[in-house]
Design goal:
The chain has eleven helices and 14 strands. With 351 residues, it is an alpha/beta fold. Helix 1 links the parallel strand 1 and strand 2.
Length: 351
């Protein structure tokens, strides 16, 4: 009896249900897109840490096995790894396992790589951001081959090559789901939007300082920052100290649809992160009709609506020029549709 073909995705976390839109949105969009692109392929996500309750369920037609490691270290992590291995073995016994895809080069790729080599299963690891930085102990433990690595962007591939002497053979960014956007965006009454975790890496203190400089020419400028994180309180104090309470609104964490709706009401996305693999928020903002200003480029080729200053000092000047442009357009720019991205990844596994 022929076994049904299946691909397994190993991830630190995955949405607990259809309403869990804030759990790694780019990767859940990819998984959903992969299932839609290959409806007859059985896709199984094995989630190491989150959700925090061990369970087996279906999400948009994808089987999810949550092992609920809960981020515990040492002995608990080893127990989780053993459970992952046992789960993979059961999957292999039941299905024709055509491939393993690991999100990030970390514990998922460590276990996935060992399993794939032992049982001769095609496998790839998708480098998605900070895992390409120097000091990732898993790189030396895994010693990955370049043809088994997918970089999310040209810049991340270069970063990984500089740090580890391995240039990933494949570059595939994450895609966007155009069906999540309203066909009739509302009035663009937000001048600038920022979106992301409120952590030092994202440099939202710089975002606030840029707005302060812009108020000299645009005293009524309206901006919002969407996200949560440890810098929330310090940002509140900074906004109050600079007397920007009427100019900068901290929205906190929003659902993914809520964030996209705000993007479609915004003129400019300002992304002040000092390090990114390739933030999907840039692609989403472009399709939402925003002009994008970011410190990190990501890809070697970018649309004209994506502006990358030489340094942070040039950000206010670029934004001033955009806001003063009476002919500024806000038409959707589609650079990485998830359908294309899913097809590229599936092709690596021969599907």
């Amino acid at each position: 009896m022929n076994k049904h073909k299946a691909i397994v995705i190993l991830s630190p976390g995955f949405p607990a249900d259809g309403n869990d839109t804030t759990c790694i949105p780019p990767m859940q969009i990819f998984v959903k897109g992969l299932k839609q692109n290959k409806p007859h392929l059985h896709i199984i996500v094995v989630s190491f840490q989150y959700p925090f309750t061990a369970s087996r369920y279906y999400w948009n037609g994808v089987e999810v096995i949550a092992l609920a490691g809960k981020g515990k270290g040492q002995l608990f992590r080893l127990i989780t790894w053993r459970r992952v291995w046992q789960t993979l073995k059961k999957i292999q016994d039941k299905y024709e396992l055509t491939g393993l895809l690991n999100f990030w080069i970390g514990e998922c790729s460590f276990i996935g790589n060992r399993f794939a080599k032992k049982y001769n299963v095609p496998h790839y690891t998708w480098l998605l951001g900070q895992d390409a930085k120097a000091g990732n102990e898993y790189v030396n433990r895994i010693k990955p081959e370049k043809d088994a690595l997918i970089a999310i962007s040209d810049s991340l591939a270069k970063e990984f090559s500089i740090n580890y002497g391995i240039l990933p053979e494949h570059t595939i960014p994450t895609g966007i789901d155009t069906t999540l956007f309203s066909p009739r965006p509302g009035q663009r009454n937000i001048d600038i939007i920022g979106a992301g975790s409120l952590i030092p890496l994202k440099q939202y203190s710089l975002f606030v300082n840029v707005i302060k400089r812009l108020t000299a020419d645009f005293p009524e400028i309206k901006t919002v920052i969407c996200g949560k994180g440890p810098e929330m309180e310090s940002l509140k104090k900074q906004i109050s100290r600079l007397r920007l309470d009427n100019n900068v609104e901290l929205k906190g964490e929003l659902s993914h649809p809520e964030l996209l709706a705000l993007m479609q009401r915004s003129k400019i996305l300002l992304h002040t992160s000092c390090y990114e693999g390739y933030s999907t928020v840039l692609s989403e903002a472009l399709y939402a009709g925003c002009q994008v200003v970011s410190l990190v480029n990501g890809m070697n080729v970018r649309p004209a609506q994506h502006h990358v200053p030489d340094n942070a000092e040039h950000i206010p000047g670029i934004i001033s020029g955009l806001l003063n442009n009476p002919d500024l357009r806000h038409e959707p720019v589609l650079v990485y549709p998830v359908e294309v991205i899913a097809a590229k990844v599936a092709a690596l596994f021969g599907h």
